[in-house]
């Protein structure tokens, strides 16, 4: 329905001069200096190619949302734990009526009717419309091309830069797809198969140490239950729930979970999970994914019978340059966020094992996505992300802003201050930093207040080491850590060994699902956004990891130390200690 206000503005817009439209000259919103690494120009985009174009509108009271988030997440605050409902969050993020009328008027002047949107968020802060390349080029003063991925032959339709009329910069946070190339091969899963690692089949079964010495190299749910002190706790199936977010056509197999549980958690035999398909995501049970199976087997294996849901998020069917078939080229994170924020009831814990170098993400895209995680936190959900598998940075670590200098390369979304980033450890006696664990400091997100003391303490202790290679005012990560090597996973009926911070994130997520279950059983609520808690009263609930480092970019990276460090955060969880602290 058009509001009266909107009708007035439509009239105003159509009376204005056709090009100026009263919105001022175009100003660049985001542009790259060079085609992003890993991509090359292929051809101009066909003018009639249809994009599913997403407009993220400026949210009316986002600062107020952040104030609520801080209050309900701060253990000392009187409002601690009083999370907001979907309706309350929607009211805070709803755009100001001026924003709506200005944006809708601008779209209408370009022949785009917001009434025909493919999707509109319930708060009104996001509109997705079908827009042809020729319309998009006029709308955004841009030039869309087909770009080809160098390492496989995937194609995307993107632009090197885009602009908006001056007056719209105050009303629109992001238009996509534009300059975020992302692409399937860029959004790497953070797990890898370890073909030479020992597996349970080769472990010594007559080992009675606690945890068994075999846990030094071969991780099973039993190892994690002993190491992180959850073995004595039995959760209910009714109080809380956990979500695993998957992308890249990764499917979690029911049959493999059955095999896994009968082999490693026979007491949970028969426990299942549900799959929710988002944005055309598939669920091919004959095509199990290593990442998907790793995630779901360890979340269920550690948190069962707490209900677990696997979100299979459809990505971006590859663009075929010679076909006239329009393809959905939306961005996976935004599609999932739009979906989940539209649900009234959502899991209390989410884990996602995907990430990519922060410098490949346009700033407007990164901030829009990160702020949506803050909305989930305000609603009482804890959001875990793997910290990445390349230490302080993979590859040559050269900057892509035209300066071409070597700098540590932080990971997105781990560097978003509204998620809890999870690093990796290895070994049990002692447990130490695993060398590949992602850690460091964001260049996009400044250091949040909750970690001021912890991070300045660390920076003071390391003096000039790595000076100039990282941003000492940025958000430091990871926040916590868990085992990251030698996970036994069943894939297509066979046990294989998998490593990566991809394994660490579901492990921590499951343990916090148990903590939610415990808290709710005592009359409390879910923990919600965790970092203010982790950096204050809960910090002593972790086993501090004080050895090892995370090399990368031709350096030794950061060393773990007593207290917080950008290798393992505060360390690995001790469930029994955490129970007493939450
Ligand atoms: C499911 O996966 C199997 C194995 O990769 C494949 O042969 C089959 O074509 C897939 N089915 C569909 C409907 O995509
Ligand atoms: C360092 O971080 C700050 C705060 O996030 C940011 O404003 C600044 O641009 C960053 N510097 C570099 C060189 O990336």
Describe the structure.
This protein has helices at 4-15, 62-73, 86-93, 97-109, 133-139, 221-227, 254-264, 290-303, 332-341, 363-378, 452-462, 501-521, 531-534, 575-581, and strands at 26-31, 39-44, 50-57, 119-120, 126-132, 144-149, 155-159, 161-165, 172-176, 192-193, 242-246, 274-278, 308-313, 349-352, 356-357, 382-386, 411-412, 420-426, 432-433, 440-446, 474-477, 480-483, 487-491, 494-499, 542-543, 572-573. The protein is of the alpha/beta class and 582 residues long. The chain folds into two domains: 4-59 and 94-181, no CATH class; 192-581, Rossmann fold, CATH 3.40.50. The strands form eight sheets. Strands 11, 12, 13, 14, 16, 18, 19 and 22 form an eight-stranded mixed sheet that branches. 54% of the residues are buried. Bound molecules: 2-acetamido-2-deoxy-beta-D-glucopyranose (2 copies). The site of one 2-acetamido-2-deoxy-beta-D-glucopyranose has 7 residues, from strand 20. One 2-acetamido-2-deoxy-beta-D-glucopyranose binds at residues 284, 286-287.
